[in-house]
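INFO batch 0412 | record 1 of 1 | parsing
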Amino acid sequence: MTAAQAGTVPAVDSASVVLLRDGPPRSEDGGNVEVLLLERHLDSDFAGGAYVFPGGKVDAADRELDPARWTGRPLSWWQPRLGAATPNDALGLLVCAVRETFEEAGILLATREDGQALTGDDLSQDSFRRARQQLSDRSQGWDWRGWLEDEALTLDLGSLALWSWWVTPEGQHRRFDTRFFITPLPAGQVAAHDRIETTALVWSRPEDALAEQARGAAVIIFPTRRNLQALSGHSSAHVVWERALASTEPVPRIQPTIVMVEGRPMVQHPHESEPSPV
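INFO prediction complete | emitting tokens
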């Protein structure tokens, strides 16, 4: 019996990026790292109205990017860490992370071929704005690889550090096998939501976002909350990113389950005894 016949929707490979920056110092707890959160459109068929990190599913073209169009650690290094079946599957996750961050947040983790960093002026040019719009228009199925070559751009996959790995519980109508990466906001770039899949953008300390969720002022789903909790209390975006880059510890693949508690759906973490709100 196949997964579809059994009623279980397969989880598709996807990637999400937690953009970090340093905010104003907070003396009470020392944490001043801020993260970028996007509010998904209410009509979205996944996590509508929730605050999320930029991200999405891997496209076939992500796995086939020319080696001349990216820099970073070799795919043989990434493959086991990402749990990817092939080096090209590892490449797909990394390229997806960069592409989705550009599409949804307007931040492009890339340089010119000569190593020159991109600026806000670059991203405001018509060519970059059109490319982002074409990526956002899913009806086109636009392949951005030709545009990357025309603009002499090289994706900076070395700026990505693996942070966590979450899988949507079984029984959901859409399921994702998501690798979460972290990276500092590139100097000179300014984030802006896409106004298609997302309706708002906010930079927030993880602690503040969690407090908003706790009092019912924001919707933040379970994996996002857990990522925010893990980022709480850090005093420097670059320090937490560099630690993640240097870590040799494997990142566990976490797949919660949905359980009913007094008629209410809850999320059960596989390594915890008490369920949590969805």
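INFO post-check: Helices lie at 75-82, 87-105, 120-123, 126-136, 145-150, 206-214, 222-231, 237-246.
INFO record closed
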